Every structure is written in structure tokens, then in C-alpha cells.
Fold L-2-hydroxyglutarate oxidase.
Amino acid sequence: MARKVTVIGGGIVGLAVARSLVQRGAQVTVLEKEARWGAHQTGHNSNVVHAGLYYKPGSLKARMSVAGNRSMVEYAQANGVPVEVCGKLVVATSEAELPALEVLAQRAEANGVPAKMITQGQAREYEPEVAAVAALRVESTGIIDFPAVCAAIVRELETAGADLRLSTPALGIRTSERGTVEVATGGAIVRSDALVNCAGLHSDRVARMAGFSPKARIVPFRGEYYELRPDRSHLVKGLIYPVPDPTLPFLGVHLTRMLDGSVHAGPNAVLALRREGYRWGDLSVADLLETARFPGTWRLARKYAFPVGYEEVRRSLSKRRFAASLAKLVPAVGEDDLVRSGAGVRAQALLPDGSLVDDFLVEQGHRQVHVLNAPSPAATSALEIGNHLAELLFTTM
Ligand SMILES: Cc1cc2nc3c(=O)[nH]c(=O)nc-3n(C[C@H](O)[C@H](O)[C@H](O)COP(=O)(O)OP(=O)(O)OC[C@H]3O[C@@H](n4cnc5c(N)ncnc54)[C@H](O)[C@@H]3O)c2cc1C
């Protein structure tokens, strides 16, 4: 008889694991609390298919993003999802950034990512307005429509007869004496042989609901975007990224030409005041208390509050500062060229010692798999993560 599996979370990771499970013969139910698929991180991101150059060689992120870069592009092409492999530039804007750019070039090589160091003149052939003393050209980076990927997976799941439930939050989880996993949804109890938790910003809470005690807590980091005014979008031809700070898990504000020709600028990284807090006014006392009670929060604050966190908050509140960060990459970009766009909230796992979990983090128990850290590039890597989780789950059953 087919094994029954419940997947909690209908973002790109939950949908991808559901697809992998169906392909292995499982009977799958997906529970999503919102009224549409991909409503949170998946629907509020940069839509970049990352190449895999930033991540520690051998890490899950490195392996799955390099493979995911290929599988995601192939999936999109085969399923009528808009995608374009346009390549990108990582630019050193001063001599001081050159050693870090070299390190990145070596990392790209170690991860098997096609990338080459180019001169200022060569960089300007790709991006005439860029300020670069040198750049790393990465060919395999692309732009995509991740919500359209979700829609394609949903169509596949529907065809395969999966039970897909929107507006259905998982409110409680217990394992019966006979070993059946029971998920209370408010309306009904969903019974299955196994559970996969892909609840993104709520993944640690869902794990605790299932009787797990994950060490890591989710800390929500909001990333805000601006857009270049349409008459200024000619300033950016493709994707322009800064040399990242290796001590931080974020890539720094960048300029991304989207599939519709608009140019997005961002995201920055500020602590959100609720798990799904897309604006400064979105505040949850319960979420804040939970974050404040976790010892890792205070250790993180000691490390990053000043000057990194302080500067991020100032940039979030000041369009002039945001524009100044972008002008380091493209000096012609000014404050008046920017229009406020949306924001996304990253689910970033934090450990009690104050360190941010760098790699994807998956924990498994009897008939349960919990995805406890799946930040960028998890959308790029989703099909690989899906396969990995499906394999893991079957080893626990
Ligand atoms: C600003 C930003 C920019 C990014 N840029 C990129 C990029 O360019 N490329 C890239 O590869 N990655 C990028 N990422 C990362 C990427 O978006 C995420 O890694 C990916 O979307 C994670 O998918 P997910 O399915 O795990 O989470 P989500 O998309 O957040 O899905 C989790 C789902 O679980 C649901 N849920 C939660 N609790 C429950 C419950 N109790 N019951 C039922 N449902 C529940 C939520 O409603 C949500 O829909 C970015 C992220 C952000 C925030």
C-alpha cells in the first residue's frame, strides 16, 4: 500500500518535496495555512537562480545550489516557466575588496561554478555604468519566476492526485499509539504515516508542536526592495552584486534586472518585529517576547548590533542611504531614481550561542523530517532539497 505523508508548508520547498514523494509512490497531503501557494519567502524574493559560488565547498548549500541551478532551469524550460540564464557580475569597487573577490573566485572554482575574474574594461562591456576595479563574471546565474515554478509543481501534484489544502494551518501534531501521525487543522484531523515540516518562518514552532526540541530558533530578517524608475532602468543590464561580507549570511544590496525588464534594488537585512513582518509597523508582542527570551538573540546582538545592525536600520529608514549603497555599484543611481517596492522576510535559524546557521539544516526523527533552516539559495535548490528530504524520510520509516 502507498505510504501516506503529510507535508506542512506550501512554499517552494514543501511543494518540491511533495513532488519527490509522489514520484516515489507516496500518497501526499500538503497543508498550507495561507490562501495561496508560495505566499511567504517563496513569493517575496529576488527570483534569482543562484550559481552556487558563495557557499562552503561540500556544504548542502554548495552541493544543492550547483545541482539546483541546473535542475531548476531545466524544470522551468520543460514546464513553460519564464527563466533566463543571463549571468551576473560581482564587483570589487575598491582595491581593498580585491582579496575577498579572489577568495570568491577560488570558492567558485572549488564548487565547480563557471566564473572568471575580469578587468574594469571587460566589466563595462557587460555593464557600462558599473563602478568596478575588477569583477567576477558568473555565467550560470539566472532569473526566474519562482511563484510560476510553484504553480507548475501544483499542476503536477494535482494530476498525480495529491491532496492539496490551502487555508489549512497545522495547529497541533501528535503520534497515535499505532504510530500514525495526526495533524489537527481546525477543520479536520489529517492522518498519515509520516510528516515533513517545511513551514519556513514557523518551522521551529511546527517542530516543537511535533514533540521535537530543535536547538535553533527562527529569527525573521526583513529584506526591503526599491525599484529603479522605468526611465532609469537602462542603467542596469543584468545582475550586479557587491563583494559580500564573509561574516554575514546575506549577499548585500544588489541590482537585479527582472524578467519583465524592471530593475530591483535590495534586499537589505533588518530584524523583523514579527515572523511575517513585511513593514516596520507589523509587530507581534508574542514573537518579540519569544525572540527576546532566546539567549542566542542577545549573543547575536552583542556581535552585530553595532555597527552592522545599526547601519542596516539607518539604511532601512533612509532612502538616501539606500541609494548611496547602490551608487557604490552604479554611481549614476541617485535617490530620485528609486521607488519603494515590496519586502520579503528571511527565516534564518539562530543557535543559542548567537551564531547564525550557515548551511541548510534538516533534522529527522522516527517518520518525521524537519527543515529548520532553508534560507537563500533554497528556492534555487528546491528540487534537490525535495529529493534529499524524500530519501531521508523513507530511511526513517
Ligand atoms: C528577501 C529574500 C530574497 C531571496 N532571494 C532569493 C533568490 O533570489 N534566490 C533563491 O534561491 N532564494 C532566495 N531567497 C530564499 C528563498 O526565498 C527561500 O529559501 C525559499 O523560498 C524557502 O522556501 P520554503 O518553502 O522553505 O519557505 P516559504 O516559502 O516561506 O514557505 C513556508 C510555508 O509554510 C507555511 N506555513 C507555516 N506554518 C504553517 C502551519 N502551521 N501550517 C501550514 N502552513 C504553514 C507558510 O504559510 C509558508 O507558505 C530569498 C529570500 C528572501 C526573504
About this structure: The longest helix spans residues 295-317.
